[in-house]
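Worked example 2:
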Amino acid sequence: MSWFEENKQTLIALVEGIIVFLILFGLIVAAATFYDFSQTNIPVLTFILALVCAVFLAKSVYDIEIDKVRIKKKGEQLANKLVASSQQLFLEVYNNSPVAYLIVGEYGDIVSANTAAARLFGVSTEHLVKRDLFSFMETANEEHQSILKHKFTEGITVSDEEVKISREQDFSWTTFSIFQFSSTDGKKLTLVTFVDITKQKEIDIAKSEFVSLASHQLRTPISGMRWSAELLLMDGVESLTKQQKRYIDRLLSSIQRMSGLVDDFLQVSRFELGTRVVKEESVVLRDLFDDVVAEQVEKISVKHLHINKEYDDSITQISTDQALLRMIVTNLYVNAVKYSRVGGDVTLAYRKNGEELIIEVRDTGMGIPLGEQPRVFSKIFRASNAVREVPDGTGLGLYIVQKAVQTLQGRVTFLSAENMGTTFTVVIPTSL
């Protein structure tokens, strides 16, 4: 569009104003030239002129106000059209989206549901309305559901939390998100989304079951190989040459690494399948920690590491799952030894704080790069400097630690800086 077309109305109004001015100005000049004002009553003339000016001024004000009203009405009409169009677009997206949407009231009551939500829940949209949202949901444990309810009540945004949706005869795995907003009348509402991940979950479960089965099956031949190698050393060590003994030692070392890898895969599959049953028993802390340290004596000696033990004598034993606790301490301690440089320090500590046991494993090793720290507890993840300096590793240790801590209803955190070392802190209850 050209400049002239954009400003056409303004130019027309300007030309009309100039014409009216010229006509009025011409009349005034003609009157001043041909009319004798000597006999004119000046007050009357002044009054007439003032009245004419007032009329023109009032007309101008009137036109301006009329234009404002017209512009306002046109604006309101346009806004109403846009609102109606936006509402229609929202309703189309809301109702026909493949993602399940619910609009939920302040107390968890379902106000509205789209077609995808009705399909996901296995009922009609009418049957969903006024039902309690959380009555359909199942989580890993009651604590998880309590946390979700608390976040909902407090208006805290939730994104992609994994929950199960109960239906009449079965259930669906979903990721659950909530976003709160206010309606036009100020009422607090929540938009809830569910994304069906049942197929992906079934695939993950099948993978975990396969890993679990394979790990179980592999343990038998690995045990056989280890026993055979150990029997060779026990029965014929005098008849073996140094080279043959070195081969057998190397074979035993490889078998040990393979056995550890299979055990790690087995533990991961148990956690993911939810088949790991917690067995509560009395655990003597000093004995467990000393056993873990003793298992790494050779590696500590080779790297000339300084081991510090900071045990709280006010607590001697706790009631927990010994296997899980050993798993946590072992993985953290092995990592500290593995990633410490020659002559470094490793500290293993525990202390009591109220009804909680606090475990710390500190080292002065290579540390974890800042940009990679959010992924530390991810499955099969190893930091770039760890891969570069210590190629041997599966990336499962810290994942197993986190799962074991969660199973014991605890929490794990860490502080780390590259080339400055790492401190892992585990907090678990002293009694399950």
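The mean pLDDT is 80. Residues 42-96 form the longest helix (55 residues).
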